[in-house]
């Protein structure tokens, strides 16, 4: 055999194959380190030019950097180097054997191996090969050749299809390489906390966490996120931000901590291990400034890396919807919208994707929930743009009926009575609104028959009413609330933001700023929260307040002056002629 590229992996594997009885006829080694490795691990093996190695060997090990592999294989093919019957093995994790096609066309036998192991490039690695899992990818008839090579050096072959290689490799890099970054950061911070031997100190804890995770997956999670200790998490962030300001070498620490806390929160929440309000508080605690959470969700760009998703199926009639749904197997989630979609809506769809096999999005501007004189006709509509956005997040079906489809006989005579919860806050200003909302929500639940229905926390009272309806009328669906998505400056995303001119857009910031001021006063009690928020709103002449209240998140009833625990600070206001709403969860005792 011969080895092209005596890097860490190449030299170690060649040495192991040699020990198993193969004769190594030559190794190509360009750098000093590679030549030293050949001396140390392959003593007596001549260092040759690549064409000479390829010419002399029956089994060629290509262990060059991933990005150089395709060019190398093609280059050897261009000079007629490959020989029929030669076994060509590479060890690039992300590739299967397609990358070896030029060699295969010349009659060579392609094999892709990848050891799930890190290498130092010294003889220490030889012992690590024993029992080490190796991914083996090769055309069916030659798969046994790859498996036999692995067995010869003491490894455990695991057959992996060509198409799975990129995902496989990404998983290993994410788990093993990013773990190194994470643990390095933890050791540095522990050192700054005065712990002398951070590695020794962390060892037992990290080993227990790793063992637990390998055994039980996410159930192994412990710590402040799982306990919903948002105050502790906020303090961690503040402390790490202060440390990063002193130590430029740790400037990457706060974003890493924030991102991992956010992802940990979202995963625990998706798994039902955190309540909506605990998750929202945690997301707020790790949000970038403004402290009202602006980036708690993957950005739109996060979806860009994925394969372009197929467009959702668009259906406009009951009959077509039934036909499409009848073909679906497995679980279904529904996201109901009025269109003019933005990232807040897409968050609902992303969460729906995580929770069900199929995702149906409804787009319907429901006349029944608009009172005469409201913005029914002006409400923005752009179905084409909506479909493109929904394709990017993997919605399967879009149901976009017209009013005649939903209400063929005009306004329905039988409607859902939303009860007393619908006459306060939004309901005080829009008395017929929630009757219209719940009627259409119930109709859409019947039409789409979902297991899960997702609604935004931005419309907190609507969410509470949908939950109440589902409970009181025994509708067989799980209702999930999704945190508020904000613009980077704090403004809650809303289709109605499109109405705002420049001056109004800037005045509208007073809403989220007031909520933030209220949150900052949470430690001082309910009255102070309201006073702080009200002061902020009063200072903005472009805003006409409708209501500002501190309420129980479930009943929407105002909390008493001495209340404690999670509360909802809700606001509605006209900015010019646009009516906006916003809210935030705060913890009356915990926030400072
Ligand atoms: N910023 C947001 N973050 C999270 N969810 C949101 C956000 N905005 C809207 N949603 C949710 O999306 C769903 C559809 O809402 P809708 O189509 O009314 O959008 P909207 O932007 O709230 O429009 P408008 O503010 O004009 O009523 C609702 O469940 C709503 O709560
Ligand atoms: C739930 C809903 C789609 C019903 O029309 C609407 O009220 C909304 O968009 O929040
Ligand atoms: N997002 C609630 C729908 C409405 O205001 O009509």
Automatic annotation (TrEMBL):
The active site is at 345 (proton donor). ATP binds at residues 338-345, 456-459, 493-496. GO terms for biological process: pantothenate biosynthetic process. Keywords: ATP-binding, Cytoplasm, Ligase, Nucleotide-binding, Pantothenate biosynthesis. Signal peptide: none annotated. It is found in: Cytoplasm. Its EC number is 6.3.2.1. GO terms for molecular function: ATP binding; pantoate-beta-alanine ligase activity. Gene3D superfamilies: HUPs, NAD(P)-binding Rossmann-like Domain, Pantoate-beta-alanine ligase, C-terminal domain, ProC-like, C-terminal domain. Residues 132-262 form the DUF2520 domain. It is an enzyme of class 6 (ligase). It catalyses: (R)-pantoate + beta-alanine + ATP = (R)-pantothenate + AMP + diphosphate + H(+). Beta-alanine binds at residue 369. (R)-pantoate binds at residues 369, 462. One of its GO terms (cellular component) is cytoplasm. Pathway: Cofactor biosynthesis; (R)-pantothenate biosynthesis; (R)-pantothenate from (R)-pantoate and beta-alanine: step 1/1. Residues 2-115 form the Putative oxidoreductase/dehydrogenase Rossmann-like domain. The reaction proceeds by a bi uni uni bi ping pong mechanism. Catalyzes the condensation of pantoate with beta-alanine in an ATP-dependent reaction via a pantoyl-adenylate intermediate. Belongs to the pantothenate synthetase family. Homodimer. This is Pantothenate synthetase. It comes from Georgenia satyanarayanai.
């Amino acid at each position: 055999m011969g080895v092209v590229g005596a890097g860490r992996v190449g030299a170690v594997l060649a040495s192991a194959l040699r020990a198993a009885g193969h004769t190594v006829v030559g190794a190509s080694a360009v750098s000093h380190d590679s030549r030293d490795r050949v001396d140390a691990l392959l003593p007596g093996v001549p260092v040759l030019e690549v064409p000479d190695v390829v010419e002399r060997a029956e089994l060629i090990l290509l262990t060059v950097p991933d990005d150089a592999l395709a060019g190398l294989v093609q280059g050897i093919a261009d000079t007629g180097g490959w020989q029929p019957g030669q076994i060509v093995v590479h060890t690039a994790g992300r590739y299967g054997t397609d990358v070896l096609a030029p060699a295969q066309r010349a009659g060579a036998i392609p094999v892709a191996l990848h050891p799930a192991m890190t290498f130092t490039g010294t003889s220490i690695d030889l012992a690590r090969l024993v029992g080490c899992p190796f991914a083996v990818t090769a055309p069916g008839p030659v798969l046994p050749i790859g498996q036999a090579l692995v067995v010869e050096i003491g490894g455990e072959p695991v057959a992996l299809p060509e198409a799975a290689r990129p995902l496989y490799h990404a998983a290993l890099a994410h788990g093993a390489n990013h773990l190194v970054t994470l643990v390095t950061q933890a050791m540095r911070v522990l050192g700054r906390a005065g712990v002398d031997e951070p590695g020794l100190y962390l060892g037992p804890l990290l080993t227990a966490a790793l063992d637990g995770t390998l055994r039980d997956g996410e159930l192994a999670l412990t710590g402040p996120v799982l306990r919903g200790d948002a105050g502790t998490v906020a303090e961690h962030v503040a402390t790490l931000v202060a440390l990063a300001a002193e130590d430029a070498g740790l400037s990457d620490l706060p974003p890493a901590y924030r991102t991992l806390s956010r992802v940990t929160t979202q995963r625990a929440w998706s798994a039902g291990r955190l309540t909506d309000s605990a998750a929202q508080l945690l997301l707020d605690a790790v949000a970038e400034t403004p402290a009202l959470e602006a980036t708690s969700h993957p950005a739109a760009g996060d979806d860009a890396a994925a394969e372009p998703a197929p467009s959702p199926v668009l259906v406009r009639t009951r009959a077509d919807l039934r036909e499409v749904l009848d073909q679906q197997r497995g679980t279904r989630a529904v996201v109901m919208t009025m269109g003019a979609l933005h990232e807040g809506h897409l968050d609902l769809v992303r969460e729906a994707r995580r929770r069900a096999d199929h995702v149906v999005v409804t787009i319907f501007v429901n006349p029944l929930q608009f009172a005469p004189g409201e913005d029914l006709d002006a409400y923005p509509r752009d179905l084409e743009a909506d479909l493109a956005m929904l394709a990017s997040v993997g919605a399967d079906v879009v149901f976009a009926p017209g009013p005649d489809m939903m209400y063929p006989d005009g306004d329905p005579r039988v409607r859902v009575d939303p009860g007393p919860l619908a006459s306060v806050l939004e309901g005080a200003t829009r008395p017929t609104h929630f009757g219209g909302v719940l009627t259409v929500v119930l109709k859409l639940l019947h039409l789409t028959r979902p297991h899960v229905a997702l609604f935004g926390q931005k419309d907190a009272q609507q969410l509470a009413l949908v939950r109440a309806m589902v409970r009181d009328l025994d509708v067989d669906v799980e209702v999930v609330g999704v945190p508020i998505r904000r613009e980077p400056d704090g403004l809650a995303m809303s289709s109605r933001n499109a109405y705002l001119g420049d001056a109004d857009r800037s005045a509208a910031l007073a809403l989220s700023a007031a909520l933030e001021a209220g949150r900052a006063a949470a430690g001082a009690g309910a009255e102070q929260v309201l006073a702080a928020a009200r002061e902020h709103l009063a200072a903005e002449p472009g805003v006409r307040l409708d209501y500002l209240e501190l309420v129980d998140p479930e009943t929407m009833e105002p909390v008493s002056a001495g209340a404690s625990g999670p509360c909802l600070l809700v606001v509605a206001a006209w900015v010019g002629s646009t009516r906006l709403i916003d809210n935030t969860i705060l913890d009356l005792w915990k926030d400072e």
